[in-house]
Specification:
Elements (H helix, E strand, L loop, with lengths): L2 H18 L5 E13 L3 E12 L2 H21 L7 E13 L7 E15 L5 H10 L4 E8 L4 H26 L2 E10 L28 E14 L1
Length: about 230
Amino acid sequence: MRLLPLAVLIVGLVLPVAAASETAPALMTVTGEGQAVAVPDMASLSLGVATRGTTAAKALGANSTALAAVLAQLAADGIAPRDIQTSGLSVSPRYDYSDQGEGRLLGYDAHNMVTVRVRDLARLGVVIDAAFAAGANEFNGLSFGLADDRSAVDAARRAAVADARARAELYAEAAGVSLGRIVTITEAAAGNAPQPMALRAAPMAAPPVPIAAGELSLGAQITVVYEIIQ
């Protein structure tokens, strides 16, 4: 009866030694990149109204009146309320520093910018032209995108996985080893925002300005860790 606790104690001492003798598997870390091309189906533009007044209230009042006309025109062109969002509103004093002094107050400048999504690209030029005809006098940029980019992004992800696998197989062949199971797959943060196309803030004459949407390139990047079989 006294031998049983001793046997249990001996087993308990042996097991950690056996576990410590096992070596951790060798690992390989590779990064894969993938791209997918898609035709844009919507555009986002930033436009607005800049006005001046002798007081802040007058500058803002004139601005509000002018922007209301622009918003009414956008609605008439079929732009839904959910596709129009205020992106910048400011009122600032304007000074004359010609006397090299502290400056003489001349009045106030008011700016009100809205971001507009246009889902019918065939009418994009018409929408921009009509907005300027209605009173818009500032234009800060235009970019293209997809209403639903999931299928394009998934295609880029598949390409990234295939790229990572191809790189890992190449390295394994060059090193004279074999690939084991996948340990982890990590996706990098997406960075595929389309670059804006800047246009000068000036009234646009008829016919509507021609605009080419082109293509969008969406990318994905992943990091894969493989076990190495020696």
